[in-house]
Amino acid sequence: MVATTTTTTIAAAYFPAFPHSILSPHPPSTRPSLPYPSKPPSSSPISSLSLSVPNKPKPTPIAFSAQIVTNPLPQNHATSSDTDGPPTENHFNLLRTSVRYNDVELAKAVHASALKREEPKTTLSNALVSAYLKLGLTTDAVRVFRQCLSCPDVVLYSTMISGLAKSGYELEAVSLFFRMRKTEIEPNEFSFVAILTACNRLSDLELGFQVHSLVVKMGYVGFTYVSNALMGSYSKCGRLDFVLQVFDEMPERDVVSWNTMIAAVVKESMYDWAIELFRDMQRVDEFSADRFTLSTVLVACAGGRNWNGGRQVHAHGIRMGFQPTLNVNNALIDFYTKCGSIRDVETLFESMPVKDIITWTEMITAYMDFGLVDLASESFDMMPEKNCVSYNALLAGCCRNGEGMRALGLFCKMVEEGTELDEFTLTIVINACGLLTDMKISEQVHGFVLKCGFGSNSNCIESALIDMCTRCGRMDEAEKMFYQGLDNVSCPINWTSMICGYSRNGKLEEAISLFCNRPSEEVVVDEIALATVLGVCGALGYHVFGKQIHCLALKIGLLNDTGIGNTLTSMYCKCGNLEGGIKIFDMMSTHDTVSWNSVMGGHLLHRQGDGALDLWSKMEKAGLQPDEDTLRLVISAYGFTDSNLVEKCRILFLSMRTTYDIEPTPELYAAFVGVLGYWDLLEEAEQLINSMPFEPNATFWRALLDAGRISLNTRIGAMAAKQILALEPLDPSTYVLVANLYSASGRWQCAEKTREEMRKKGFRKIPSRSWIINENKVHSFYTRDERHFQSRDIYSAIDVLILECMKSGYAPDTSFVLQDVEEYQKKDFLYYHSAKLAATYGLLTTKRGEPIRVMKNVAICGDCHTFLKFVSVVVRREIMVRDSSGFHVFSKGQCSCKDYW
């Protein structure tokens, strides 16, 4: 027994012992066939996708079953006995020529000549069956085979089994093999290779066990090519442990053995192990790598982003003389796409003497991966030959680069030209619709897919349709597709898509409910589902459930994932646990730009500008390149510092183009304006308006309006409000901001005039919603809300609180009531704002001494802000409110925002 020390040592800790018992018979299941559209209607507009598309008729399958050996066709041709002379060598030469040049007529002519000369079947039939199978004439091969059933041999059976397996008739090949076992003909090593080919294509593990056991029983386990076939079959079934066991027990190996082992390891994404096996191959068994070895190892280097390893394999290939080989060069293009630069890829492409359709397709993929969409399109146009795969590469690249409409246009072109459409094509175009978020286009594409017959036959297409519906606001249809069958509910991709859809459409509680009600343990919780639910926990402020998801991530081994770490950091910060977010950030093994942005954003939510700037200094020392979001957060941090650092902020803002190669955007200007407003430098903000290289958008003017409100500068505020109303005349939040600006500065008449204009136009402000989480349930409140089952207790308690706060100096500010009612009624409206109701419910349901955590969808009003400061004194409790501006921590009559929000 030969076994490498490295292979056995690495795998010993991971894989169990190999089973050698013969398992009970388990008939393989058939794979579903998918209809493909033949010639879709030629029309370019998107609307044409709703037209009827005929399906390509599927060829009638040949019946290969048990009757193939029990009911042979009648022999209509005269044959001679085995005592006749052998066939001429010319017959065999002509059959080989017919296969080489794909000449069907020549093969049939040889067959006719043999029948005419009454050549014996047993000497020519094997060659005829083999030739017909290689030419794709399965029916003719079956006819010859049936005519030879009176005197078949193991070679004929093996040839027929192998041909059926390779022609897509795997079930018939298995049936024929077990039928042969019932005769007196014993299978040989070639028979086992043939049946294992069928097992490989069927991915039937139990059938593979039976064949393996038979191989051991009949003594063929020592044949290298039989063991190679066993390894290939187990690899296809995803059982790397069995592949390793067979490999280690092989008495002799060849290059194919090593290639199969390396390919199986690469298939399981164990890239470092694959490279180690490549070294063992040359060191232990002293085999020279072939083209397939180099191609597979290059795939491992690309998957593991092993730049040095890939370069060494490239150099090894040059030394071995494989440089001009097409498949090696194609693997090199993929490697340099993932690990090198576009210049490396272009240099290699231009030096290739021969290019095939795979080469061109990989070049398109490379351009798309580097974001060069136009160059990818040019390469596609230059291709001498195109097929469905090359179209798919261009479509997928457009989607990866956010070019949804461009992908749809290309898809329409495919439909016009009658190009073959497969599952991947339709999945990509569905994803393109999701990028566009256009309901009408998504409905047309949805209808087109259903008319093609793919909708209910493909899990990946169904998952893509569910995701598309959630992105295009069609949640009812997404839910209908998801719940229409148990298979859909238990599909991990569909389950994750629905969770993301609920989150995307603001149905946060439904997302958590679906996550908690996982249909079965077989539904794998992946990074996407975890990150989505953690984001929902952050949005809701669901701190307790967020900690449980943290434990789940630790349990299933996803805590080392950078994306999960970033989401955990953000979740803890949004739930008011800044210390927890910082702790997660410090525990992460690697940080990317999003990691730093998450923890800096957490500091800003808690209005800790100095802490955010300290992180910025550490990020610069780490040498990490900031993005636009980073600079926006850093600039905003200067508006929350204890001391005036506007000069440093100004230097950063003016130097971002030269220092970080980032062009100032309206969002960055708006952040700087917010800082100037906080430090009462509104004149400089006005000068900034005149120097901007572009027209300011609504985001910028809102920042200026907010700055005017903080500084009580109604002139600046009115100017900003006028611009916002011109840009977004139908946005009611603008009128609310203007009214609050006038109210804060004591201009009650102007404030009432603004509210009257708002009422005349029929605008209503976004309903103020506050919520608190108690006993794993979200309790929501709106203004004067009496729907809660404890509303009587809440209203009684709030009346007591108001009286106690009034004794301490609280006076209700009715200017924050937008309804046109009497003064006494305004007080009634004011007393029962949603934030007051939620905070009171929290006081009733939490233990003494615990902080109250209230979440709010809009900015807290001034009166509620004042009231909660008094409440913190009366009840001696800390009250934490997170609104659209960040956290307010009320304690001992003070707020952490210092009354600037």
Automatic annotation (TrEMBL):
Keyword Membrane set for record: no
Pfam family, one: PPR_2
Disordered: annotated segments: 26-53
Key words of the record: Repeat
Ranges of compositional bias, category Pro residues: 26-43
Gene3D superfamilies associated with the record: Tetratricopeptide repeat domain (1.25.40.10)
PPR repeats: 153-187, 254-288, 387-421, 491-525, 592-626, 731-765
An example Gene Ontology molecular-function term: zinc ion binding
Low complexity composition-biased segments: 44-53
Limits of the DYW domain: 809-901
Top-rank taxon: Eukaryota
One GO biological process term: RNA modification
PROSITE patterns (alphabetical): PPR (PS51375)
InterPro entries linked to this entry: DYW_dom, E_motif, PPR_At4g14850-like_plant, PPR_rpt, TPR-like_helical_dom_sf
Keyword Repeat part of the UniProt annotation: yes
Similarity remark: Belongs to the PPR family. PCMP-H subfamily.
NCBIfam families cross-referenced by the UniProt entry: PPR (TIGR00756)
Protein's name according to its UniProt entry: DYW domain-containing protein
Provenance organism: Rhododendron simsii (Sims's rhododendron)
